[in-house]
Design goal:
Structural class: alpha+beta
Number of strands: 7
Distance between the termini: 20 Å
Bound molecules: zinc ion
Radius of gyration: 18 Å
Order of helices and strands: EEEEHHEEHHEH
Strand content: 15-25%
Number of helices: 5
Shape: elongated
Helix content: 40-55%
Strand order of the largest sheet: 2-3-4
Length: 146
């Protein structure tokens, strides 16, 4: 197992970007410079412009990273309720049931999502099975040692 990185909650914030010039969705957000912040680049028309929601989006990403610390007990209990041990002692997580509930919990409890600038954005959230394994490792095995 590779060493996990703990400061990022492995929940992905997917942001659907639309070009302000040609309406294409072929856009990417990238760091233009430390002072300028993030820009959005459209590969269809090759235009770029500053990300208007840059500050709020950055705040949302930071709040996401703090989320599993702020709610670790609740997430741990939920995860345990979807975890079984098979007859060989192998741990099995029911990802199909846990993932939608975790995403719903995030959407209901991440205060930054109520921000008016954030609400204008086309956002969806996802987490992979590997991401859930990482959450499990962090909340049960790793933290349990302290
Ligand atoms: Zn464009």
């Amino acid at each position: 197992m590779t060493t996990p990185i703990f400061y990022t909650f492995p929940l992905t914030i997917n942001r659907n970007l639309t070009c302000i010039h040609c309406n294409s969705n072929n856009c990417e957000r990238y760091l233009y410079g430390l002072e300028e912040g993030n820009y959005i680049f459209c590969s269809s028309c090759e235009q770029q412009w500053p990300d208007e929601a840059d500050n709020s989006f950055g705040q949302l990403e930071r709040e996401r990273d703090r989320f599993w610390d702020d709610h670790s007990e609740v997430i741990k209990m939920a995860l345990e309720s979807f975890t079984t041990i098979n007859s060989f002692g192998k741990k099995k997580i029911n990802y199909k049931k846990f993932i939608p509930e975790l995403l719903e919990f995030f959407e209901d409890n991440c205060k930054m999502l109520e921000d008016s600038e954030i609400q204008k954005l086309d956002l969806t959230f996802s987490i992979s099975n590997e991401g859930v394994d990482l959450v499990d490792y962090y909340l049960t095995d790793y933290r349990g040692r302290f």
